[in-house]
## 1
Amino acid sequence: MIMAEPTARKVSKEPDVPAAGSPPPPPDEAVLVSRARQGDLGAYDELVRLYQERIYATVYHMTANHEDANDLAQEAFIKAYQALKSFKGGSSFYTWVYRIAVNKTINFLKQRKHRTHMSLDDLDFNAEHDPDLVALISDKTPRREIDLSELQEKLNTAMQKLSEPHRLVVTLHDVQGSSHEEIAEIMGCNIGTVRSRLFYARQQLQALLSDYLK
Amino acid sequence: MSMNPDQENFEELRRLLALKRHEQPPPGYFHDFSREVITRIKAGEAAGNAPFLDRLVETAPWLRRLWEGFEPKAIVAGAFGVGVCSLLVVGLISSERIDSNPGAFMPNTELPQNILASVPSQTVGSSLFERAAADHGVASLIATNQSQSSIFDEIRRPYVQPVTFSVPVLGN
């Protein structure tokens, strides 16, 4: 069953009286969408800034390629702007754009030839101090000599072996922290399907990454 | 569901996957992202007046690839065109043949007397028609046919081209 459509995503809390000199809080998403539908590109620019990182991250984790993620994320926002008149407001703009980006990415992945190019330089230095990483690469891990780039490569390789829907579920839930309900709305399926895909994808990844999980 | 080793391993897997959050684009990437999007939107609006063919090719990349494949090889393009035209001609001819000879596919409910009379009275075959013609005679067969209502009664009788056939006599 499709969940009840959520209310429009608010950018910030209801504005209290701002302190003197402080910038006003950003307007509501619905206001921005309304202005953008009337051709206000400034309003649409604000919408893009609100969601660009999450949209890009999802596409990147699906494609494992920065250039492709850049193109696809931009095209998703462009297509969303062109289709604004058809946006009826039944779901949040965020979810709607997400769907566009996801569909574009899945179509792209199905069409492209197999490419193994992955952006291995994207792992920033802060990961070395990530407590999860420290806990993972510990005396419990057989391969203690593994370095970050190898781990990233293995992880991305394993992700690319999943089918697009399974990879998407893992990306949205385990990488980006989306809830089952949010994922179901983005993917246009029920929560049971999300859970079963997630379970299956985790089993697959567990088998592929068994050397790094013991 | 109680905690089990599988779930515990999923926990490690989830921690591993969470590391992907550290994969970030180059520094400053998002500073220009929205500006590039807006620029492309404006360019797209300006190109909205582009010719129909240009817009069609833009929206159908496979069409562009097909066209680019034909450009350096005129012979291939010509052969492709000839093939398409040939298919069209064959299709037209086939449809005309069906239209001009519909009787070949319609059952013959009224056979000329001279044809039916040539059927020997002996029962030589196992077909129902031959046995009926031999046992009951042609007239009764026709009458039988005519007395029974048929779904073909309402269909305008098509032109029927008589077919002559001879039934081999067995047992001689």
## 2
Amino acid sequence: MPRLMYMSDWDGRRWHDMGGQDAGPVPMDGHDFALWEKRIDALMVLCGQKGLFTVDGLRRALEDMGEEAFETMSYYERWIAAVNQNLIEAGAYSLEELAGRMDEVAQRGPTYGEAQGDG
Amino acid sequence: MAERVRVRTLTPPGHVRAPWYLRGKVGVIERPLGAFANPEQLAYGLPAEEKPLYRVRFTMADVWGEGAEAPNDTLDAELYGHWLERLDAHAA
Amino acid sequence: MPHDHHDHDHVHPEGLSPSGHPYRTDNDAPLSYWQRMEIAVRELLVEKGHVTPAEIAAQIDAMDARSPANGAAVVARAWTDPAFKARLLENASEASREMGFDIGPLHLIAVENTQDTHNLIVCTLCSCYPRNLLGLPPDWYKTRAYRSRAVREPRAVLREFGLDLPDHVTVRVHDSTADMRYIVLPARARGTDGMTEAELTALVTRDSMIGTGVPRQP
């Protein structure tokens, strides 16, 4: 769980660096992945192969998103946020282009199936 | 004879791969792994130097002291050379 | 993970991967902000020539083809072929490629379980996993509980997985902190002497290659 502390007392340990901390039982439930999640995974791998950014860049963005994101977003939600962060930094497209496309996607329909495009 | 190393007790703010729970702990080099691009530079989209990487073995007693679950169990982790201090430098 | 929202098990005809695997589709759930971002990012990358739809489909297909069955085949070969086992322990990447598995740039180390040694794999900093051989990791591997506790109380964690190790067995935990990935070569079960490599493959579970389990008994 997030631990509140005054930053002036912080020792420098970052939230993701969790080896050895106390935690509860390991949750054993699992699920498989949806198409949009598999697409995010594929985009990450391809962006790495094309030299747009590295898996270390992905991890850096995930870490910088903070503990609240870890607790409140699903795995691939965090991944697409981190992929996008790296692509913006790499200049692959602009925020203006992203904003316009996300708005356009929303106009296509209320579900992923209607909005997903054919890529 | 296995080479003893201590993990440096550094606390930079950014993306590093040396886990907090191993900082300051003493282990032995299990095997050298070769040189790899430094993730501390790759993470920021920068050209990265090649850094030597080692697999270092600790006993659970080394890491957790008296509180170890089983003192002779071991923990292996990969650590870059710039995070390690050699303790046997004067032995030879 | 309480925040996963995959309540829909329906498989739609259009929800098939190129290899024919059914996707667990979320196609009829309300479009989320992050799904909109995925669609937008993917389309922009295609339009700007960074990737093609065919490359994305091929990559999804390649990941779908990676599963614990690949690792099980490697393990069963090592159980039946001492020379292969020696090569696996020397260089698990090359040994996996020798068996025809496309593992990309994966740097793989195999660690061997014996009568007195049990190995366990974790990644405390994120969730590094030998995905190019075994496919995507199970959800529990990515949890705070597993990442936090596996390095400090591995025996207690193993008991939660139903594995109660005797004191004379040394536990070796491997934290995947950098460029290597790990696979456990589990000990071959007793009573399997006459079994073929294919029969042995069926005994090797995903968890037995992470170290949170042991192979099935025949």
